[in-house]
Amino acid sequence: MLDDVAKGSRPTRVHLLQHRGKTFVTGLRWHPLGSVTGHMKEARQYGREHQLDIVAIRRTPGIIQAGFVARSDGVTKGMYSLAATLAGQLGDSWIAAWKTETNLDQYALVAVYQGGVISGCDMIGTGAEVRRRVTQQRSRGINFTHEYLPSEFEMGGQPLDIEVLLQPSHLKREYRLRPLVFGLSKAEVVQLITLGGLIAAGSIGWAQWQSHQAQIAQEAAFQAEQHRLAELDRLHKETGVEQPPQALEHPWAKRPSAAAFVENCSDVMYQLPLSIQGWQFTSAVCDGAQVFSSYKRTGNSTAKSLIAATHGHFSDRPAFFDEGNSATLKSDISIPAAGDEPLGEAIDMLANLSSWLHGFSQTPTLKEVEVAVPVEPAMPGQPVPPPPPPPQWKLFELSYATGITPADSLAGAPSQGLRLREIKTEYQTGHLIWSVIGDLYAK
To answer: InterPro entries in the record, alphabetically (predicted)?
Structure first.
């Protein structure tokens, strides 16, 4: 009944589900559209930017949403979006999962909240993956009106009768996928005008307090989803690899790799002169976004001479302190995120990293730090969400000081789960002393 879409050797999240001669597609990338009258133009622009050329459009009184997929995933027009088909029948707030094959550990999952398909919840996965995704949605404080879950999940709810929902008599034209083409057809223009008139007429009665609260909640949900999608797009562009939705829950996915951090910081710090017009170098700190270098005035050197000598070589004018006898110079840097990666067992990762640094006669400190999971704020008019589940990973703080440059002490070091927070160097009695602070993420 279930066919995986072949796409060379590259894994894909898109799957095809066959039922009574009809083909249903899962794994669409759902994106809210902000414009009522220009939503197709917005959809085409998004499709061009992400190389996605087939779409399903969902319109409800509260949201306009597009589900995107690529023709290269084996999808053609006329197939049906599984999420759109179910959303058109089950309403605006529900989550559903069901087994796709009797003899396979393979389940489908679709979730809709406030009329919109939740990003990352139009998928096929193993029972463990789908159960984890259901738990994630509950931890976000979402209270679904209906939950259709298999009894073997032991998570409550009731089983879904997918056979009834997918029968041909229940399928509508609006559930079909269609190609993204340029320009608007006459039918689309008429539909947009009609939709605009209906929305304008409906807005007259939108003054009641309860409706106003619902509008605020919907806008908050829309903005939150826009932010999540923007973060995923940023990670995709910086890493060059499409990131899974759970990458947003992993702090290491959003931070630069240790190698990139060392390289970009070193490129600036190694070029800093030890003296500028009589101002002597004392220290420099790199936090991944800026390098702050400090200099101290000697002899008859002046602030004016330092300003003139550094003009055009740093990101800003010198910042003076210590009654004008010291100054800080700033250099801006930009380091791309490393993206998501699997983590190893803590005992192995700690042993590998500490052993590497011991080989350079270093004495690193690696101490476990309690992970504070951020609590999702309550949506306007909604109850406070339950506390999130504890993370499935551990965090260790790394720190050490050395006379060896980080480019030497960390070159080739075990870097899985390692992210740096700060590199600092101080000039002491004719030598540079380096200190490194970072985080090691492990299972």
So the answer is: PAP_PilO (IPR009663)
Token pair belonging to 53: 């050329």
Residue-wise DSSP of 76-91: -TT-EEHHHHHHHHH-
Q: Which of 72, 65, 67, 117 is nearest to 91 (CA)?
A: 117
Helices (H) and strands (E) in the chain, counts: 10, 21
Does this model's pTM top 0.70? no
Cβ 396 vs Cβ 368: under 8 Å: yes
Q: Angle CA(58)–CA(180)–CA(174) in degrees, nearest 5?
A: 30
Residue 247 structure tokens: 């990458």
| Model confidence pLDDT, tens digit, residues 329-338 | 999 999 999 9
The C-alpha atoms of residue 409 and residue 406 are separated, in whole angstroms, by 5
Q: CB of 186 within 8 A of CB of 65? A: no
Contact (CB, 8 A) for 113 and 221: yes
Distances (CA, A) of 256 to 261, 405, 418: 6, 19, 9
Collapsing DSSP to helix, strand or coil, 269 comes out as helix
Task: Please tell me the distance from the alpha carbon of residue 23 to that of residue 29, in angstroms, as a whole number.
Answer: 18
DSSP string, 397-419: EEEEEESS-HHHHSTT---TTEE
- C-alpha–C-alpha distance, residues 73 and 53, integer Å: 10
Is 164 in a helix, a strand, or coil?
helix
- Is there a contact between 369 and 395 (Cβ–Cβ < 8 Å)? yes
Tokens at 170, concatenated: 């229940």
- Give the tens place of pLDDT for each residue, 104-159: 899 999 999 989 999 889 999 999 999 999 998 888 888 899 999 999 999 999 99
91: left (phi > 0), else alpha (psi -120 to 50), else beta? left
Strands 80-81, 22-26: pairing kind:
parallel
User: What does the DSSP assignment read for 277-291?
Assistant: TTEEEEEEEE-SSEE
Question: Which residues are CB-contacts of 63 (< 8 A; sequence separation ≥ 6)?
Answer: 32, 114, 115, 116, 218, 222
Between helices 186-203 and 39-49, what is the axis angle to 10°?
120
Cα separation, 349 vs 364, in Å, equals 14
Residue 354's identity, in one-letter code, is S
